[in-house]
Structures are given as structure tokens and as C-alpha cells.
Amino acid sequence: MARYTGPKSKIARKLGAPIFGADKVLSKKNYPPGQHGNNRRRKTSEYGIQLKEKQKAKYTYGVLERQFRNLFEKAQRTKGVTGEVLLQLLESRLDNVVYRLGIAKTRAAARQLVSHRHITVDGQVVNIPSYTLKPGQVVGVREKAKSLEVITDSLAGRSHSSYSWLEWNQASLSGKFLSAPQREDIPEEIKEQLIVELYSK
């Protein structure tokens, strides 16, 4: 399974955002990494700004370049505003929904739960993190995985009512994907229009 496994704090500092979650290093060193990180005065080009936004989206959702481009092309073919549709496709990924439901503390942990066959969709085990959910589908935890410490710890510390496009059922440890979220409901600080401009060149 292709995924980024390099240093996370370095990437967060480079992009200037806590894209992998709370980061003590980022709060202490809120400037780019490297020998001249704190003294760079060169103005970033328009292309550089657009590229940075694309990288932020890729690392936030844990998607590599080819997969991200495929999603962008799919968003272009879909009716609606391309940038918003792109974010909706990213939010509809199974690993992201597992994270949003609070079953896992991070998207990386959610991806691992999915690939290790601990997650079901409509009662069937699905081990593809990039699986795109359709409205009405139910994401749940496999019966024998409900007692896993990583899942119980995550569920104990999360609120499940914060996303209007998801419906959580505590009794069955499952959540219903009601619909693709509207742009204003997606909390990620990503300027999707810059990504569209980058790919349109």
C-alpha cells in the first residue's frame, strides 16, 4: 500500500500547517526546516504557492501524486465546482470517514484499521482505504475488533456529532455516510482553487 512514511514534523514545518495533527515541533519552530529556514526572505512565486497548497492537501489526506491526479481528473468530469468536488471525493474515502467518525485518532491509524480488515461497509469487510463511499452506506467495526484498545481509546475521546454528513450509532459502533459534505462543512484549511489553477496550466 503506497503511503508517505517520511518525517512528519519536517513536512508540517515546510507547509506551515499541523497537517498530521497537533505538533510540538511546529509550535516551537514555526519556520521552514533546513539551514536557512528562519532567514528566507525570497518571495514565493505563484506556482510555488499553488504547489504548496496541493502538497498540503496530499499530505493531509494521505494520498500520493498519481492517486491525487486521478481524483482531480474525476472531479473535472463530475458536475459541479471542480475544487469542491475534489475535496468531497477526498472526504468520501473510507479511511477519512473512519477518522471522521472517531474510530481512529489519525488518518494513518484509520488506513491501518481498514487494511487490517477491522472495518466493514454495509456489513462486508472492506480493506481498501481509498474505497469511495456512497450516500446511505454504513461504516462499522468488525465484531471481533470492537474490543481493540486502539479503537476503544479513540472512541472514548471523540465527539461524534460534529459532522453533519455523518450519523453515529454508539450501540453498534457504526456510522452512516449521509451525503458528500458541502465545502463549508469541511474543516480543512485548503484553498482548493489554487490546486485547480495548478493543474489547469
Automatic annotation (TrEMBL):
GO terms for cellular component: small ribosomal subunit. Part of the 30S ribosomal subunit. Contacts protein S5. The interaction surface between S4 and S5 is involved in control of translational fidelity. The keyword Ribonucleoprotein applies. InterPro entries: Ribosomal_uS4, Ribosomal_uS4_bac-type, Ribosomal_uS4_CS, Ribosomal_uS4_N, S4_RNA-bd, S4_RNA-bd_sf. One of the primary rRNA binding proteins, it binds directly to 16S rRNA where it nucleates assembly of the body of the 30S subunit. Belongs to the universal ribosomal protein uS4 family. One of its GO terms (biological process) is ribosomal small subunit biogenesis. Residues 27-47 are annotated as: Disordered. One of its GO terms (molecular function) is rRNA binding. Residues 92-156 form the RNA-binding S4 domain. Residues 3-91 form the Small ribosomal subunit protein uS4 N-terminal domain. The lineage of its organism: Bacteria, Pseudomonadati, Bacteroidota, Bacteroidia, Bacteroidales. This is Small ribosomal subunit protein uS4. Keywords: Ribonucleoprotein, Ribosomal protein, RNA-binding, rRNA-binding. Pfam families: Ribosomal_S4 (PF00163), S4 (PF01479).
